[in-house]
Task: inverse folding
């Protein structure tokens, strides 16, 4: 999923303060799974903002809504009747959702309540870790299902570097050395001899390096 | 002979080669480069010029190499993939070769986390092994990484780093094999204090015949103090300093520790001379370049052969 | 109106804390009328939003009372509650309401005396901290307490 974390309240207050009526919109997908912007978090943020306003002797007119997804126009459309009663939208979706809402509702500011972080997976309840950087040319088949582009601090395709210590990355003992993980997996799969195959320089055009990307399905696009 | 490099000539002649290093200053101060390099004149065959070492901004390795070459010495251009993409690297190589610089060391580089600009994006367009492949292609095929022909292709003597002490140990010989396959002509190891582990690695290297495919320069670093020994043991990733070495340094009074450090360094060189497959030494005397002459003399590596 | 009388909401789990409150009652032990009890099946049922809403509606202090560690009727509901309370304390600090206004406490069903002591201690603590800064600044009356 795409993971995100709520921005500090101070920063959100700066967005919200100049506006009298706020439409706070959550998303039922990724940000619900990582407990950052789902229905529960929308409720919490609305209450927290209300308390902050009350401290200043004011009240905040805030309407809470949670869409199925904010990255699809058909769901974003559901906000149409509510934006008329708002002066600004505060979106608790990932960056994709914030932009889609902003694209549809051009007449009022749309602010992000979250900092979108990474594409990742749940390691266990309450812990999410980076797994994929969307390089556009997946090499997981060669690396035993573990990605060095997303998980090596230096994006080495022929790792590990000389800083790998006890299975941990040189930058922190909290960070696994992904090449240790890959090597262990290759051994477990009986594929050790793969290690010495040299992975040639990557063509980053399939990734962000080639410019902003689009996928078009001719059979589906109207 | 793959190149015109003096370092290659010394190694090819069967002599033990000696290199040392020069870290450029954290400012536009060319005199500092010249001073350090001058201390090494006559006692080394080539001088590594480091590249934004420990991810701290310094005068560029390329510029410092030019200064050193102008003094009549032979620099080794160190280059890290952390700071530049494949265009910039190839461009630097063309520039360096145009200044008669014909040795280089292809590295990934320390993470910016450790340096003075942790906010910087690390580039890593290519890694150190792809870097080796690229420089070899430039030299042996006369082509850029992208495939186009190069006018007067640079003939670089290609070096890489090899760390026998990093984890996982079982991979460290395979890693050298990979670098050799990619194009390394010579390697410089990590600082050697743990001679047993180094010899264990060399056995693995010899078992695969790698010592005949690549020149191995064993790296030694003289310790200035017991504090330095402890720091290197505990704070530097990939560094293996056995307790006995720290104890030996701590066992002498403070004013004698520097001399003890030199003694250990010379003894290490003497022991390494006996290890089959070691083709030379890299004396990494950081901010202590004035001791390199003394070390080479005491270790019987002075004067340098005429090639 | 000289003395500020805090309004305190106590979320009490049915199996232990609420029963302890009952016990206090039958033992004729006094505890301050400031404490308004909300019975929940398990302290783990209490979610962050319940706590925030209590403050929004005028509570000056809140505590969540669950079973003794290891004795939760639902295995580890009290541990979950404790983690949530810790999270909301930080959130309250971020809002500027002072996380000390919120506590997690543990007791067993027979601890009538402990229930009254906790109620007294919390009431005094909140009395010392003063009224909820969100409600003193607004026109909400303190008596408009918990839902």
Result:
């Amino acid at each position: 999923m795409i993971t995100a974390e709520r921005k500090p309240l101070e920063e959100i207050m700066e967005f919200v303060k100049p506006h009298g009526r706020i439409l706070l919109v959550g998303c039922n997908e990724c940000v619900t799974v990582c407990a950052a912007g789902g229905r529960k978090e929308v409720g919490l943020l609305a209450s927290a903002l209300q308390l902050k306003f009350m401290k200043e002797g004011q009240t905040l007119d805030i309407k809470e809504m949670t869409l199925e997804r904010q990255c699809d126009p058909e769901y974003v459309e559901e906000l149409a009747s509510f934006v008329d009663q708002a002066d600004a939208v505060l979106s608790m979706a990932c960056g994709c959702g914030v932009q889609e809402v902003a694209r549809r509702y051009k007449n009022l500011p749309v602010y992000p309540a979250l900092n979108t972080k990474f594409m990742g997976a749940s390691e266990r309840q309450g812990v999410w870790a980076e797994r994929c950087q969307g390089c556009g040319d997946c090499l997981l088949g060669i690396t035993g299902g573990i990605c060095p582009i997303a998980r090596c601090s230096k994006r080495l395709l022929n790792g590990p570097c000389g800083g790998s210590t006890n299975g941990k990355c040189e930058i922190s003992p909290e960070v696994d050395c992904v090449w240790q993980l890959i090597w262990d997996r290759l051994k477990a799969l009986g594929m050790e001899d793969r290690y010495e195959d040299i992975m040639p320089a990557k063509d980053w055009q399939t990734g962000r390096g080639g410019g902003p990307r689009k996928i078009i399905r001719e059979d589906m696009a109207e | 002979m793959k190149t015109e490099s003096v370092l290659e000539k010394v190694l090819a002649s069967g002599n033990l080669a000696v290199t040392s290093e020069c870290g450029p200053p954290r400012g536009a101060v060319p005199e500092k480069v010249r001073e350090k390099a001058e201390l090494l004149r006559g006692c080394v065959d080539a001088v590594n010029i480091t590249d934004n070492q420990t991810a701290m901004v310094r005068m560029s390795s390329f510029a410092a190499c030019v200064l050193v070459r102008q003094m009549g010495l032979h620099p080794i251009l160190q280059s890290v993939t952390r700071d530049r993409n494949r265009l910039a690297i190839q461009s630097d190589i063309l520039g360096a070769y145009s200044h008669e610089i014909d040795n280089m060391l292809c590295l990934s580089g320390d993470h910016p986390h450790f340096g003075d600009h942790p906010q910087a994006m690390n580039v890593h367009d290519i890694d150190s092994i792809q870097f080796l492949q690229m420089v070899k292609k430039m030299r042996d095929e006369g082509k850029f990484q992208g495939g186009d022909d190069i006018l007067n292709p640079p003939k670089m003597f290609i070096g890489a780093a090899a760390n026998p002490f990093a984890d996982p140990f079982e991979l460290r010989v395979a890693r050298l094999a990979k670098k050799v396959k990619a194009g390394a002509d010579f390697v410089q190891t990590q600082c050697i204090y743990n001679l047993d582990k180094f010899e264990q690695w060399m056995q693995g290297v010899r078992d695969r015949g790698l010592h005949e495919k690549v020149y191995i320069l064993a790296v030694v670093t003289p310790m200035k103090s017991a504090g330095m020994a402890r720091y290197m043991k505990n704070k530097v990733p990939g560094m293996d300093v056995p307790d006995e070495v720290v104890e030996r340094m701590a066992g002498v009074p403070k004013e004698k520790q520097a001399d003890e450090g030199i003694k250990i360094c010379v003894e290490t060189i003497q022991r390494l001379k006996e290890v089959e497959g070691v083709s030379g030494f890299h004396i990494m005397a950081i901010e202590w370049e004035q001791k390199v002459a003394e070390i080479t003399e005491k270790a019987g590596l002075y004067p340098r052969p005429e090639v | 109106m000289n003395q500020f009388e805090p309004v305190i909401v106590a979320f009490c789990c049915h199996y232990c804390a609420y029963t302890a409150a009952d016990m206090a009652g039958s033992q004729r032990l006094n505890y301050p009328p400031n404490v308004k009890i909300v019975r929940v099946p398990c302290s783990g049922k209490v979610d962050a939003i319940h706590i925030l809403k209590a403050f929004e509606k005028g509570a000056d202090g809140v505590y969540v009372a669950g079973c003794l560690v290891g004795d939760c009727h639902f295995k580890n509901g009290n541990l979950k509650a404790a983690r949530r309370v810790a999270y909301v304390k930080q959130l309250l600090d971020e809002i500027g309401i002072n996380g000390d206004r919120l506590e997690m406490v543990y007791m067993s069903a027979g601890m009538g005396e402990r229930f009254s002591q906790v109620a007294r201690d919390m009431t005094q603590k909140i009395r010392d901290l003063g009224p909820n800064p969100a409600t003193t600044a607004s026109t909400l009356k303190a008596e408009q307490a918990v839902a």
Q: What stands out?
A: Chain A touches chain C at residues 8-9, 40, 43-44, 47-48, 50-52, 54-59 (CB under 8 Å).
